[in-house]
Backbone:
Protein backbone atom coordinates (compact mmCIF):
# COMPACT_ATOMS: atom_id res chain seq x y z
CA UNK A 1 0.00 0.00 0.00
CA UNK A 2 1.36 3.41 -0.97
CA UNK A 3 1.57 6.23 1.59
CA UNK A 4 1.75 8.87 -1.15
CA UNK A 5 -0.88 11.60 -0.77
CA UNK A 6 -3.76 11.39 -3.21
CA UNK A 7 -3.95 13.90 -6.05
CA UNK A 8 -7.07 15.86 -7.02
CA UNK A 9 -9.43 13.87 -9.21
CA UNK A 10 -12.69 14.28 -11.14
CA UNK A 11 -15.07 12.98 -8.47
CA UNK A 12 -16.79 16.35 -7.95
CA UNK A 13 -17.00 16.88 -11.70
CA UNK A 14 -18.57 13.45 -12.17
CA UNK A 15 -21.13 14.20 -9.46
CA UNK A 16 -22.21 17.34 -11.34
CA UNK A 17 -22.35 15.49 -14.66
CA UNK A 18 -24.48 12.76 -13.07
CA UNK A 19 -26.97 15.47 -12.14
CA UNK A 20 -27.18 16.71 -15.73
CA UNK A 21 -24.28 19.12 -16.21
CA UNK A 22 -22.38 18.83 -19.47
CA UNK A 23 -19.44 21.19 -18.94
CA UNK A 24 -18.08 21.64 -15.40
CA UNK A 25 -15.65 24.44 -14.58
CA UNK A 26 -13.23 24.65 -11.69
CA UNK A 27 -12.62 28.14 -10.32
CA UNK A 28 -9.92 29.43 -7.99
CA UNK A 29 -8.23 32.71 -7.10
CA UNK A 30 -4.76 33.76 -5.96
CA UNK A 31 -3.39 36.93 -4.48
CA UNK A 32 -5.67 37.81 -1.58
CA UNK A 33 -2.79 38.39 0.84
CA UNK A 34 -0.20 40.48 -1.04
CA UNK A 35 0.32 44.18 -0.37
CA UNK A 36 0.64 44.92 -4.08
CA UNK A 37 -0.73 43.76 -7.40
CA UNK A 38 -4.11 42.42 -8.48
CA UNK A 39 -6.13 39.52 -7.23
CA UNK A 40 -6.34 36.94 -9.99
CA UNK A 41 -8.89 34.23 -10.72
CA UNK A 42 -9.07 31.47 -13.30
CA UNK A 43 -11.84 29.21 -14.52
CA UNK A 44 -10.98 25.95 -16.27
CA UNK A 45 -13.04 23.27 -18.01
CA UNK A 46 -10.92 20.15 -18.38
CA UNK A 47 -11.25 17.49 -21.05
CA UNK A 48 -11.49 14.22 -19.05
CA UNK A 49 -9.74 12.40 -21.90
CA UNK A 50 -6.76 14.80 -21.95
CA UNK A 51 -5.91 15.46 -18.32
CA UNK A 52 -2.40 16.85 -17.76
CA UNK A 53 -0.49 14.49 -15.52
CA UNK A 54 0.30 15.65 -11.99
CA UNK A 55 -2.43 18.24 -11.42
CA UNK A 56 -2.29 19.41 -7.82
CA UNK A 57 -2.83 22.39 -5.56
CA UNK A 58 -0.52 25.07 -7.01
CA UNK A 59 0.99 25.69 -3.56
CA UNK A 60 2.30 22.12 -3.51
CA UNK A 61 4.16 22.47 -6.83
CA UNK A 62 7.50 24.01 -7.68
CA UNK A 63 7.51 27.09 -9.88
CA UNK A 64 8.96 25.09 -12.77
CA UNK A 65 6.28 22.42 -12.44
CA UNK A 66 3.54 25.05 -12.29
CA UNK A 67 4.85 26.65 -15.47
CA UNK A 68 4.93 23.31 -17.28
CA UNK A 69 1.44 22.35 -16.12
CA UNK A 70 0.03 25.79 -16.97
CA UNK A 71 1.19 25.33 -20.55
CA UNK A 72 -0.34 21.87 -20.70
CA UNK A 73 -3.63 23.13 -19.28
CA UNK A 74 -3.85 25.95 -21.82
CA UNK A 75 -3.17 23.42 -24.58
CA UNK A 76 -5.95 20.97 -23.68
CA UNK A 77 -8.62 22.85 -21.70
CA UNK A 78 -10.90 25.86 -21.84
CA UNK A 79 -9.32 28.60 -19.71
CA UNK A 80 -10.30 32.12 -18.67
CA UNK A 81 -8.16 34.35 -16.42
CA UNK A 82 -9.15 37.68 -14.86
CA UNK A 83 -7.11 40.23 -12.89
CA UNK A 84 -8.97 42.66 -10.61
CA UNK A 85 -6.73 45.66 -9.99
CA UNK A 86 -5.77 47.46 -6.81
CA UNK A 87 -8.22 50.33 -7.30
CA UNK A 88 -11.12 47.88 -7.25
CA UNK A 89 -9.61 45.98 -4.31
CA UNK A 90 -9.39 49.22 -2.32
CA UNK A 91 -12.88 50.25 -3.36
CA UNK A 92 -14.85 47.09 -2.54
CA UNK A 93 -12.41 45.13 -0.25
CA UNK A 94 -10.30 42.10 -1.05
CA UNK A 95 -12.92 39.42 -0.40
CA UNK A 96 -15.42 41.01 -2.78
CA UNK A 97 -12.67 41.66 -5.32
CA UNK A 98 -11.63 37.99 -5.23
CA UNK A 99 -15.24 36.91 -5.69
CA UNK A 100 -15.65 39.40 -8.54
CA UNK A 101 -12.57 37.97 -10.25
CA UNK A 102 -13.95 34.43 -9.95
CA UNK A 103 -17.34 35.44 -11.32
CA UNK A 104 -15.80 37.32 -14.25
CA UNK A 105 -13.49 34.41 -15.09
CA UNK A 106 -16.45 32.05 -15.11
CA UNK A 107 -18.42 34.45 -17.33
CA UNK A 108 -15.56 34.62 -19.84
CA UNK A 109 -15.36 30.89 -20.48
CA UNK A 110 -16.51 29.81 -23.92
CA UNK A 111 -18.45 27.66 -24.35
CA UNK A 112 -20.26 28.56 -21.15
CA UNK A 113 -20.13 25.89 -18.43
CA UNK A 114 -23.26 24.28 -16.99
CA UNK A 115 -21.89 24.02 -13.46
CA UNK A 116 -19.00 25.49 -11.45
CA UNK A 117 -16.89 24.15 -8.62
CA UNK A 118 -15.62 27.09 -6.55
CA UNK A 119 -12.67 26.76 -4.19
CA UNK A 120 -13.53 27.73 -0.61
CA UNK A 121 -16.67 27.88 1.50
CA UNK A 122 -18.40 30.86 -0.13
CA UNK A 123 -20.10 31.21 -3.48
CA UNK A 124 -19.74 34.57 -5.26
CA UNK A 125 -23.01 36.34 -6.02
CA UNK A 126 -24.57 36.44 -9.48
CA UNK A 127 -22.76 33.45 -10.95
CA UNK A 128 -23.80 32.59 -14.50
CA UNK A 129 -24.50 28.95 -13.67
CA UNK A 130 -25.26 26.70 -10.69
CA UNK A 131 -22.23 26.16 -8.48
CA UNK A 132 -20.87 24.25 -5.52
CA UNK A 133 -18.34 25.54 -2.99
CA UNK A 134 -15.59 23.00 -2.27
CA UNK A 135 -13.46 23.58 0.82
CA UNK A 136 -9.80 22.92 -0.01
CA UNK A 137 -11.00 22.29 -3.54
CA UNK A 138 -7.57 22.82 -5.07
CA UNK A 139 -6.44 19.65 -3.27
CA UNK A 140 -9.58 17.68 -4.18
CA UNK A 141 -10.90 18.68 -7.59
CA UNK A 142 -8.73 18.38 -10.70
CA UNK A 143 -10.55 21.31 -12.34
CA UNK A 144 -10.03 23.60 -9.33
CA UNK A 145 -6.38 22.50 -9.10
CA UNK A 146 -5.93 23.42 -12.76
CA UNK A 147 -7.52 26.82 -12.12
CA UNK A 148 -5.21 27.39 -9.15
CA UNK A 149 -2.18 26.63 -11.33
CA UNK A 150 -3.01 28.89 -14.27
CA UNK A 151 -4.10 31.73 -11.96
CA UNK A 152 -0.88 31.52 -9.94
CA UNK A 153 1.34 31.41 -13.02
CA UNK A 154 -0.49 34.32 -14.67
CA UNK A 155 -0.27 36.50 -11.56
CA UNK A 156 3.39 35.65 -10.91
CA UNK A 157 4.27 36.60 -14.49
CA UNK A 158 2.42 39.89 -14.10
CA UNK A 159 4.28 40.67 -10.88
CA UNK A 160 7.62 40.03 -12.63
CA UNK A 161 6.59 42.55 -15.29
CA UNK A 162 5.57 45.08 -12.63
CA UNK A 163 8.88 44.51 -10.81
CA UNK A 164 10.71 45.77 -13.90
CA UNK A 165 8.63 48.96 -13.81
CA UNK A 166 9.08 49.41 -10.05
CA UNK A 167 12.40 47.83 -9.01
CA UNK A 168 13.45 47.47 -5.40
CA UNK A 169 10.36 45.86 -3.91
CA UNK A 170 11.30 42.30 -4.83
CA UNK A 171 8.04 41.54 -6.61
CA UNK A 172 9.82 39.21 -9.01
CA UNK A 173 10.36 36.83 -6.09
CA UNK A 174 7.80 37.79 -3.41
CA UNK A 175 4.85 38.36 -5.82
CA UNK A 176 3.81 41.39 -3.76
CA UNK A 177 3.60 39.63 -0.40
CA UNK A 178 4.85 41.45 2.69
CA UNK A 179 8.36 40.05 2.96
CA UNK A 180 11.06 41.95 4.86
CA UNK A 181 12.53 43.13 1.56
CA UNK A 182 9.16 44.43 0.43
CA UNK A 183 8.37 46.16 3.74
CA UNK A 184 11.82 47.77 3.86
CA UNK A 185 11.34 49.08 0.32
CA UNK A 186 7.89 50.39 1.21
CA UNK A 187 9.39 52.41 4.06
CA UNK A 188 12.36 53.63 2.01
CA UNK A 189 10.79 54.15 -1.42
CA UNK A 190 7.13 54.65 -0.53
CA UNK A 191 4.09 53.02 -2.13
CA UNK A 192 3.64 52.65 -5.88
CA UNK A 193 0.35 52.92 -7.82
CA UNK A 194 0.18 49.12 -7.60
CA UNK A 195 0.13 48.98 -3.79
CA UNK A 196 -3.13 48.24 -1.99
CA UNK A 197 -3.76 51.35 0.04
CA UNK A 198 -6.49 49.69 2.10
CA UNK A 199 -4.00 47.13 3.45
CA UNK A 200 -2.62 48.07 6.83
CA UNK A 201 1.17 48.21 6.22
CA UNK A 202 0.64 50.40 3.15
CA UNK A 203 -2.03 52.52 4.85
CA UNK A 204 0.20 53.04 7.90
CA UNK A 205 3.10 54.23 5.78
CA UNK A 206 0.84 56.61 3.88
CA UNK A 207 -0.52 57.98 7.17
CA UNK A 208 3.01 58.49 8.51
CA UNK A 209 4.02 60.35 5.36
CA UNK A 210 0.91 62.51 5.56
CA UNK A 211 1.57 63.38 9.23
CA UNK A 212 5.08 64.49 8.38
CA UNK A 213 3.73 66.87 5.77
CA UNK A 214 1.30 68.51 8.19
Residues:
Amino acid sequence: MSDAPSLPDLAFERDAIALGARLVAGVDEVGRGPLAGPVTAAAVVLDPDRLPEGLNDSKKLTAARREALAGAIHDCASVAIVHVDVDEIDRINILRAAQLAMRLALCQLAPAPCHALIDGNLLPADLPCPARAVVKGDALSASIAAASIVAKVARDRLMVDLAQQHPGYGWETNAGYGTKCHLDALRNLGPTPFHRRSFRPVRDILCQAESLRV
Q: What stands out?
A: Strands lie at 24-30, 39-45, 78-84, 115-119, 131-134. The chain has eight helices and five strands. The two ends are 69 Å apart (CA to CA).
